[in-house]
Amino acid sequence: MPFNFDKPTQRRGTGSVKWDMLPEDVLPVWVADMDFESPEEIKEALRGLVDHQIYGYAWPKEELFTVIINRLKDRHGWEIKKEWIVLLPGLVPGLHAAARTLPKERSSVMTSTPVYFHLFKAAGSAGNQTIEVPFAQKDKKWVMDFASMQNALTSSTGMYMLCNPHNPNGRVFSKDELEQVSDFCLNNDLVLVSDEIHCDLILDNSKKHISVASLNKEIENQSITLLAPSKTWNIAGLGGSMAIIPNSDIRKKFQDAAYGIMPHMNNWQMASMLAAYTHGEPWRKELISYLQANQEYLLKEINGIPGLSMEPCEATYLAWIACDKENPEEYLRKHGLGVSGAHQFNGKGYFRLNFGTQRANLEKAVAILKEAFGSNS
Ligand SMILES: Cc1ncc(COP(=O)(O)O)c(C=O)c1O
């Protein structure tokens, strides 16, 4: 039976960051989770755990590794080994553990900004330096500026952190661009950390997700790839994630950095991940169609509002909207809309709007934008 993504859901009062952190008169389109119920198979798996009534320590089932290995092979054309998989209780801890794998003399981490903030925070929280290189624009698309990246390298740079597909600019980087990332890391002896949490949310049917680590054996051996079903199946609050680390030396450093601090993956995370990857494809495909239609609607509306403009995002449910107001987050909050300001991503001149919601909510958000920017006539 098709899933009804228009079905209204009530998240206010449920302890939701997205809905309960903002006042009741503000419609939240900020934090990156969606307002849809997860697929039935995930709910069933979680109910099974509740019904078991014993909540002890968890051990991953063999099936979990099998489903991950098969998924990466079938969808990404990447053959991985079981021992490369490090299960994690969240993807962000993986970014921070990755930054702690570097030796002191090569401890600074480069990333391209604006970007999801933990990519530029991870080095700092490990006591290391971050080198931020701004994205450039080419033919209205955000692209990595390899010349500036090369210039910004120092003798202490040991890592490049990539977000692909990109939050917040929505890019799905091409094979050519990712080959340049691979060359950049290999030529400069940098460990590549690739956050691919949004890889199952490709909205542009002409694009395909490519894991950088799958491009060649050299970069595979110098990489940490971070993945999770959390964004796609709306189980972000559960957190189940993983790192794929082919190089045993890097893997050991990563596990040492996490030891005793990062909890092991728990039952809820394992069960939801297993159910999502095993049974979640029909739901995911319907979700993609719904998000594509939401984005089409949003694009048309936003590009008709004076002072705002938007390019299609190739992936994610996060629109990156150019705005000529000084502080759009604060301005829109006063008008009753909770967006994410560009400053959160070390950017400016934009705000991020989460369209992973019922069309009726999105229409309300658009009405607020029209009213706030004076195009309601
Ligand atoms: C690129 C990226 N990585 C990681 C996360 C969060 O991961 P987690 O909640 O599993 O720590 C987000 C959430 O928005 C994200 O966009």
3D structure, described in words:
By secondary structure, the protein is an alpha/beta fold. The chain has 2 domains: 116 residues, Aspartate Aminotransferase, domain 1; 218 residues, Aspartate Aminotransferase, domain 2 (3-Layer(aba) Sandwich). The chain contains 13 helices and 15 strands. The strands form 4 sheets. A 7-stranded mixed β-sheet has the order 2-10-9-8-7-3-4, sandwiched between helices. Helix 5 links the parallel strand 3 and strand 4. Helix 2 runs antiparallel to helix 10, helix 4 packs across helix 5 and helix 4 packs across helix 9. The longest helix has 22 residues. It is globular and about 55 Å long. The model has no long low-confidence stretch (mean pLDDT 97). Bound molecules: pyridoxal-5'-phosphate.
Main traits of this protein?
single chain, 377 residues, alpha/beta, Aspartate Aminotransferase, domain 1, Aspartate Aminotransferase, domain 2, 2 domains, four-stranded antiparallel sheet, 13 helices, globular, binds pyridoxal-5'-phosphate
